[in-house]
Amino acid sequence: MLQRVFCDYDVEHVVIGLPLSLNGEEGPQARHVRILAKKLLVVCGWIAQDDDISTVERVSFFDERFSSTEAKRVMADSQYRSKQMRGSLDKIAAAIILQGFLEHLSCDEEED
Q1: Residue 83, Ramachandran bin (φ over 0: left; ψ between -120 and 50: alpha; else beta)
Q2: Residue among 62, 51, 56, 63 nearest 12 (CA)
């Protein structure tokens, strides 16, 4: 389904949450995410199979540490019921990742 959404819409940039370890290093799960992201970009025609994903300017990986924890806190503060939480946690965590990415961009622009 993600592939269809990605390919059907005029996507200009993709932000992908990267699960880093607590010390900020990339472990096996982060490498797995990079592999899946590359497969998606190949299928959607953004890159060729032998291209290096790190050179694609329209793709940003962003640290997703604590996004689920923050999403749970947001949901608890909003008094979500457990039934409502089931489908919402990943969506809220994704919004938190995107918000962090946009704030990071804003800080970079202020420095320039």
Answers
A1: alpha
A2: 56
Domain residue ranges of the chain, discontinuous segments joined by +: 1-65, 66-112
Report the chain's C-alpha Rg in angstroms: 16
Distance, CA of 38 to CA of 31 (rounded, Å): 11
Instruction: Provide the residue-wise pLDDT of the chain in tens; the chain has 112 residues.
Output: 677 887 788 888 999 999 999 999 999 999 999 999 999 888 888 889 999 988 888 899 999 998 888 888 888 787 766 666 667 888 889 999 999 999 988 887 666 5
How many residues belong to the chain?
112
pTM of the complete model: 0.79
| Cβ atoms of residues 72 and 29 within 8 Å | no
